[in-house]
Each structure stands twice: as C-alpha cells, then as structure tokens.
Amino acid sequence: MKLNTVFEEKVCTLSIEGEIDTLTAPELEQAINDAVPNCEKMIIDFSQVTYISSGGLRVIIGANHTIGKENLILRGMAQNVYEIFRLTGFTNFLNIEE
C-alpha cells in the first residue's frame, strides 16, 4: 500500500494505492492520525484501492468517529470496494462520493 497526503489550507487529501488489509491498516491509521490536527476536512481518495479488509474498515470507522461524517469524505471507490462498504451497512452512515 502507498499513501500520499496533500494539505491545502484546512483540507487534507489522503490518497491510497493498493490493498488495505490487516498488515497495512495500522499504517493508514497512523497517516490519518498524523493528518487530523492539520485538517478541518479530510478527503480519502479510494480510486486506487483494490481491496479493503475488516481491519481497514475499522480504521475508517475510527476516522469517521474522530473527524465526523460531515468532515470525512470517502471518494472514488471502485465497485468491488464500494460493495464491501455496502454489504457491511457502512454506506448508511459514511459520507461516500463517487
């Protein structure tokens, strides 16, 4: 998994490439936690994510709790990744954009 964070004023965009699994989820969690103090709004770009495990979902739920639904935007999910969020019911309470 590759991570890149871009800060523009009070908005940070975290781009992820690859798989978010049990091994890489802690790295994602750390990147989110490191960025939060510098962000009022966070966009997580999923356009290059090929898979997310339950460990990755846990990190996203934690970020949603910390940042808030209004300020956390999940963007650009491939259909297979979106289906994981839909099947778990997470699409009901996360801010997911196409």
Q: Which class of secondary structure composition applies to the elements?
A: alpha/beta
**How many runs of DSSP E, i.e. beta strands?**
5
Strand content: 35-45%
Relative helix content: 25-40%
Number of helices: 3
Strand order of the largest sheet: 1-2-3-4-5
Indicate the overall shape.
globular
User: Which regions are unreliable across 5 or more consecutive residues at pLDDT < 50?
Assistant: none
Biggest sheet character: 5 strands, mixed
Straight-line distance between termini: 21 Å
User: Can you give the mean pLDDT?
Assistant: 96
Rounded radius of gyration (Å): 12 Å
Order of helices and strands: EEHEHEHE
Quick overview:
By secondary structure, this protein is α/β, with parallel strands linked by helices. The protein has helices at 25-35, 54-67, 79-87; strands at 2-8, 11-20, 41-52, 72-75, 96-97.
Descriptive overview:
It is a single chain. The chain has helices spanning 25-35, 54-67, 79-87, and strands at 2-8, 11-20, 41-52, 72-75, 96-97. The radius of gyration is 12 Å and the shape is globular. Helix 1 packs parallel to helix 2 (54-67). 35% of the residues lie in helices and 36% in strands. With 98 residues, the chain is α/β, with parallel strands linked by helices. A five-stranded mixed beta sheet has the order 1-2-3-4-5. It has three helices and five strands.
